[in-house]
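Purpose: get a first structural picture of the assembly so the mutagenesis plan has something to point at.
Setup: two entries, given in the order below. No constraints added.
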Amino acid sequence: MFTTHVTRKFSAYCHDELSPEESRRVAEHLIGCTRCRMEFEEIKLGVKWAEQLPRMPAPDSLSPEIEAAFKDQPVRNAISPRRPWPLEPRFAIAASLVLFLIGGVLFLRFFRNEVQPSWEVARLEGAPRIGTTRIGDKGKLSVGQWLETDDSSRAKIDVASIGQVEIDPNTRVRLVATQPTEHRLELARGRMSARVWAPPRLFFVNTPSAVAEDLGCAYTLEVDDDGNSLLRVTLGWVSLQLKDRESIVPAGAACATRPGIGPGTPYFEDASEFFRRALTKLDFEPNDTQSSMIPALDIVLHDARPRDTLTLWHLLSRVNGNDRARVYERMAALVPPPDGVNREGVLALNQHMLDAWKDKLESTWSDYPSSMKILKKL
Amino acid sequence: MLKQMAVTREPPLKEPIDWQVIKACQQGDRDALRLLFEEYKDRVYSIAIYTIGGNEAVAADVTQQVFLKLMTRIGQFRGDSEFTTWLYRLVVNTCLDERRKQRRFVPLAEFNLVSKTQRDTSQAARYAQGELAAHVQKAITQLKPKLRLPILLKYIEGLSYEEIATVLGCSKGTVGSRLNRGHKALAKRLDWLPGQFVVGE
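Result (structure tokens, whole complex):
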């Protein structure tokens, strides 16, 4: 399936110069081919640099020189001989008319080119609105515009050619950017479900407390009125980020976020209730005097199963001192570290060792065979 | 050599000049020629200065040559292709002729920092953007001409692959391949730039 690499088409893919069928083939290949994906990242970076290339204004000194040339240079006419000037009043009227028409055409062309790119929106139920306007069965969401649903409305958005997003009732989303190297929504409140078949790191959703970055997946994301959010991944991976805090969330797992804190620690949704409550305390109520961090961490460590090393792996860099050592011991008991990864290095947060251990742990982080196949290819 | 100057970034307009204006130019209407010059001078100059390697005087000379040729040859333009395609072919050929005359590229070392007049409000952001633009300009001028020209036509002029292919006299596939190589070369040449320069939301 992955023997025919698509590297030669990457620039055309970025510039939307491929047919829909070719684009789909490139996107599908990228999901499964590490080699092509690495090369695609390089091309995308080159595209971003090239987009910074500014147009240079011609020097003012050029105009007089050209003006003099206009006066001196005889103009050859290959189509028809130049006609003598018409009478003055007729010429004035005709010239005004021509100038008016030219101005109109230029204005229309400029205006047309200023039109923002947009995504197709389809009404699923009720009366979704773009801005203040209710859409019929279909509408267009331009960059900068808000799509809003009330308590009885739902809508579906086609995310360029890379995926679909369903918008649930009482939701407010804005299209922030859409370009070949980045498609970005803002979810201010409510819930959305995304299915994205583009290569990783092309589709982003801003929330008040983190940015969700698609790594080739399907997920739901909801934001409450306080800006707290909850991500639940059903296929593939999603990364949640705020500044230097990042949580990687695989299929079957969820992760909460809080304004000012960012993403919490991801956990599998089939973890015990005690485990999940304790994790919430660790993440978002560290100064809770009623129950200190130590008991919460005790519960997490006690209830952790091998696949909950997803949570423990993230906790390694979020707790300090003795707590980090305790997390390490529990992880090592559940899934021993691979060769070349040792206690000292992990406690010092050696990134190479953390990554090596994560690679080994990933096989325990999913019992969804289909998504696992995709994950291993990633 | 290249002074610090304001730089414009506008959305590319493929055919800002109406056919009526072109016909007027063909009939020797000097106002129409002025309109044409005003509309395209920055685009022509931009292609020239990046192709020539940052030498303002040579780029200005090439720009003037292009418009002089345009005046004498516009009668040959019959509308079989887009006017821009016809014009850019003239620009590219004039630039390449100039390069042949010079035998080699003008040294690039003096392709200096360029500031942008743009929306950024903070001075630091403007400085960072200007600095970034300067690094990108330098990296572009260091590319081989056959990789550089498709990038200029794509990013300065906003031409489609088909239009670039027509201007350069090659296939669309070749355009894609050269842009690929150009993008990769840019990524490699600029990989030392810190991550904050990468523009993103």
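Residues 19-195 of chain B form a domain with the Rna Polymerase Sigma Factor; Chain: A fold (CATH 1.10.1740.10).
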